[in-house]
Design goal:
Blueprint: H1 4-14, E1 16-18, H2 30-35, H3 50-65, E2 69-72, E3 78-81, H4 86-93, H5 100-103, H6 106-118, E4 120-122, H7 123-130, H8 135-147, E5 151-157, E6 163-168, H9 169-172, H10 174-178, H11 183-198, E7 200-201, H12 205-210, H13 214-226, E8 230-234, E9 237-240
Antiparallel strand pairs: 1-3, 2-3, 4-6, 5-6, 7-9, 8-9
Helix pairs in contact: 1-3, 4-11, 6-7, 6-8, 11-13
Length: 243
């Protein structure tokens, strides 16, 4: 895999993928796809690893192009999400505007007020204008907004100094983020997306990859069994049904 277009096609095919995980962790990974080896293992010194560097640069270009959703979602997991899967992820982890006052921290709401006025800002400017100047508190609040699928990085800038630019997710994916989907349907489709790519899932695997709770991940997998899309040869194991 050499180009951002190749990477976007890969993410569209698998539905969602991590960035720099390797074969020791379950689920699709951009790094493994770049390596082209199912047994790819990230070296300790990633700064000198050509494949890790290529993956990181591809990530930057994907973020800049804005054709694929990227952000830290449940449990701080950074994921690429194909546009077709965004409504399902949002139904599970997204936050409606009417819920913001009750569920977002004051710091997250302060950052969000600035972004809704300015639309796009660098990390440093956003810290200054929001008044959330403590780096740790600011990062936690920004992660909170990413987890709620409200804010996403829009570009990575390296000169004159390294920084991210941040924007509102709805500006990039307006239709997908406004689409209403029932939570049970969303969980089922997330389970479907994972099983289509993996072919089989073992106990706890879907939960580890996506951030779903294990009981809810189980509900999603069992819904696939009920419709004949999957089979369960033993407790907690699900495989694609034969055509």
């Amino acid at each position: 895999m050499e180009t951002a277009l190749d990477a976007e096609r890969f993410i569209e095919q698998v539905g969602f993928a991590a960035c720099l995980t390797d074969s020791r962790r379950p689920g699709p990974s951009l790094y493994v796809a770049v390596c082209g080896r199912r047994d790819a293992v990230m070296p300790r010194n990633v700064q000198k690893d050509e494949e890790a560097s290529r993956t990181w640069l591809l990530k930057d270009e994907i973020v800049r192009r804005g054709q694929v959703y990227y952000g830290k979602l449940a449990r701080g997991k950074a994921l690429f999400v194909a546009p077709r899967m965004v409504p399902y992820f949002h139904a599970v982890w997204g936050l409606r505007r009417s819920e913001e006052a009750a569920r977002l921290s004051p710091e997250a709401r302060a950052i969000l007020r600035v972004l809704r006025h300015e639309w796009e800002m660098s990390t440093l400017d956003l810290r200054e204008d929001s008044g959330v100047r403590d780096r740790g508190i600011f990062t936690k609040a920004l992660d909170e907004l990413q987890a709620a699928m409200i804010v996403v990085p829009s570009e990575v800038v390296y000169a004159p100094k390294f920084t991210y630019l941040w924007t509102l997710a709805v500006g990039r994916f307006p239709d997908a983020l406004r689409k209403r989907v029932r939570r049970d349907v969303a969980v089922r489709e997330i389970a479907r997306g994972f099983l289509e790519g993996a072919g089989m899932t073992v106990p706890g695997e879907l939960a580890r990859v996506t951030g779903l709770s294990r009981p809810e991940a189980g509900l999603g997998n069992r819904a696939l069994v009920a419709e004949g899309f999957a089979t369960t040869p033993t407790r907690g194991v699900y495989t694609l049904a034969r055509p």
